[in-house]
């Protein structure tokens, strides 16, 4: 048990005491579930503190953004939460205007303590990006001094050259290894619980936000998420651990594989415009009827994913019972009725203290249009895409959003933010907090909607009017223009005045 680390970071405790009642209050309230207290957070990666200075960044968050909670990117190999602006996108008006494309690596930006990784092959994950810097140890005392809370963001995004990763990757329909890490693999599960335990034992943090935006085989086969291409021949996972998990649930492994092969054939034919005599939708539904293992296998993916979430939460609670754990609820939840049917807010609320529900409205237009084009080229190919969009809007209870060819440039409205926030609040029934993720400058293609101060103000106001327990400005500070951050802060302060 590395108390020494804990104590080292708590050199900040001296500062804490010196900082007076405000900081002390923050550390007390952080240890208990904070249902009544709204929290205003921002996602930020290590590089921003390195580039701009920890104190300067925190001051700016407080002054301009009315921020009281930092979601500090602590573990990921992805550029969505870590690193500077992604390559090819304009830099914001702060930070270094040089691309880190060549130097970005990712990993654990804190200090991994080996005793927590004994039961996993994933032992070496320290991010080399900033030398010896331990970003949690660095930010924590400075945040405490200002009465701000610090949550560690950890994300299920890896790279294939991490030692041990090749032994625990998924197996696809063709028997090839690759893709993500298998969530049924005991080493992978031990990694996540080890990481969560390490972070809350070694540092006096205020909680964990866990990101896992991965989809199961059915959605991947259909390309039924906004960001992905249709990948029916590469769906996962058919490894030995999944075989065993299937057996325990009475699912026939061979029939699942055959079902996905049939689905693959259907998708490939649909993409070529080879219309089944009964039409695309009927043929798709018939596949689901004749091969119920297709849905069973998809649910097996979700079961493993949610089991990992529950295990992470339990691991954190074993260390500190009052420490909150939240889950990022991915954007596909906004667009895709099939995904929605597979998620229950009420059920998620039993596993988390808060849900960060993605309601990104600027990039939402582009992403929603992609989703409609994907499903409109397979399952719903018989329906003109504009009509499919209208129909889907009704299914999702969306109001008056833009037409398909204007959706990317228009983005989604503040009304969408309001409705999705309300739906989440109704779903969790007060059993956990709902913190909408607000889109500030999430990269989109050149002609698509970009955040403006007015958009940001409207989205934040809509989320808070809907009754949200706070919000999380997303995806990362190194993508955000300061005027947009200030607009969010203005909306928060006006809402606080009432
Ligand atoms: Zn597997």
What would your notes on this structure say?
There is one protein chain. This protein is an alpha/beta fold and 498 residues long. Helices cover 48% and strands 12% of the residues. Strands 1-2-4-7-8-9-10-11 form an 8-stranded parallel beta barrel, surrounded by 8 helices. A hairpin with a 5-residue loop joins strand 5 (169-171) and strand 6. Helix 20 runs parallel beside helix 21. The model is unreliable at 1-34 (pLDDT under 50).
Q: How large is the radius of gyration? A: 22 Å
Give the CA-CA distance, first to last residue. 46 Å
Number of helices: 22
As laid out across the biggest beta sheet, the strand order is: 1-2-4-7-8-9-10-11
Strand content: 5-15%
Helix content: 40-55%
Ligands bound to this protein structure: zinc ion
Mean pLDDT: 92
Shape: globular
List keywords for this structure.
11 strands, binds zinc ion, disordered N terminus, alpha/beta, 498 residues, two-stranded antiparallel ribbon, globular, eight-stranded parallel barrel
Concise account of the structure shown:
The chain is an alpha/beta fold and 498 residues long.
What's the structural blueprint in terms of helices and strands?
Layout: H1 3-9, H2 11-19, H3 21-30, E1 39-44, H4 46-52, H5 54-65, E2 69-76, E3 107-108, H6 135-145, E4 149-155, H7 165-168, E5 169-171, E6 177-181, H8 186-202, E7 207-211, H9 217-222, H10 240-248, H11 253-271, H12 280-290, H13 293-319, E8 325-329, H14 332-335, H15 337-342, H16 345-348, E9 354-358, H17 362-375, H18 385-396, H19 404-410, H20 414-428, E10 433-439, H21 453-465, E11 470-474, H22 482-497
Parallel strand pairs: 1-2, 1-11, 2-4, 4-7, 7-8, 8-9, 9-10, 10-11
Antiparallel strand pairs: 2-3, 5-6
Helix pairs in contact: 2-6, 4-5, 5-22, 8-13, 11-12, 11-13, 17-19, 20-21, 21-22
The structure holds zinc ion.
The site of zinc ion has 7 residues, from helix 10.
């Amino acid at each position: 048990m590395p108390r020494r680390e804990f104590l080292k970071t708590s050199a900040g405790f001296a500062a804490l005491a010196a900082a007076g009642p405000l900081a002390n209050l923050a550390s007390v309230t952080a240890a208990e579930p904070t249902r009544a207290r709204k929290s205003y957070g921002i996602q930020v990666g290590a590089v921003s503190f390195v580039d701009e200075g920890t104190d300067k960044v925190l001051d700016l968050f407080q002054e301009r953004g009315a921020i009281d909670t930092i979601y500090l990117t602590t573990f990921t190999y992805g550029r969505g939460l870590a690193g500077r602006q992604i390559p090819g996108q304009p830099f914001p008006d702060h930070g270094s205007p040089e691309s880190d494309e060549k130097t970005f690596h990712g990993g654990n930006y804190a200090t991994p303590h080996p005793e927590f990784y004994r039961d996993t092959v994933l032992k070496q994950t320290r991010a080399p990006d900033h030398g010896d810097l331990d970003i949690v140890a660095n930010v924590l005392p400075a945040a405490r001094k200002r009465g701000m809370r610090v949550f560690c963001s950890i994300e299920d995004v890896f790279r294939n050259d991490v030692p041990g990763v090749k032994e625990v990757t998924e197996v696809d329909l063709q028997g090839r290894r690759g893709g993500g890490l298998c969530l049924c693999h005991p080493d992978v599960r031990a990694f996540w619980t080890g990481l969560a335990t390490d972070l809350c034992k070694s540092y006096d943090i205020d909680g964990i936000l866990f990101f896992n935006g991965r989809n199961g085989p059915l959605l991947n086969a259909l390309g039924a998420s906004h960001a992905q291409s249709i990948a029916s021949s590469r769906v996962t996972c058919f490894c030995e651990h999944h075989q065993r998990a299937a057996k325990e649930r009475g699912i026939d492994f061979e029939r699942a594989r055959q079902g996905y092969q049939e689905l693959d054939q259907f998708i490939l034919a649909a993409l070529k415009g080879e219309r089944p005599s009964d039409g695309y939708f009927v043929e798709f539904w018939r596949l689901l009827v004749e091969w119920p293992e297709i849905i069973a296998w998809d649910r097996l993916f979700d079961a493993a994913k949610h089991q990992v979430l529950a295990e992470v939460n339990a691991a954190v609670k074993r260390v500190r019972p009052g420490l909150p754990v939240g889950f990022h609820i991915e954007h596909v939840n906004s667009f895709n009725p099939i995904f929605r049917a597979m998620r229950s807010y009420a059920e998620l609320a039993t596993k988390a203290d808060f849900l960060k529900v993605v309601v990104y409205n600027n990039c939402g237009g582009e992403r929603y249009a992609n989703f409609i084009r994907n499903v409109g080229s397979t399952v719903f190919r018989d329906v003109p895409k504009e009509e499919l969009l209208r129909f889907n809007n009704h299914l999702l209870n969306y109001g008056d959003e833009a037409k398909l060819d204007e959706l990317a440039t228009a983005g989604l409205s503040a009304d969408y933010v309001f409705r999705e926030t309300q739906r989440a609040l109704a779903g969790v029934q007060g059993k956990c907090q709902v913190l909408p993720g607000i889109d500030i400058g999430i990269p989109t293609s050149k002609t698509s909607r970009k955040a403006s101060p007015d958009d940001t103000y409207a989205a934040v106001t809509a989320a808070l009017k809907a009754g949200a327990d706070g919000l999380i400005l997303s995806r990362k500070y190194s993508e955000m223009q300061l005027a947009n951050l200030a607009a969010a802060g203005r909306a928060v302060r006006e809402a606080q005045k009432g």
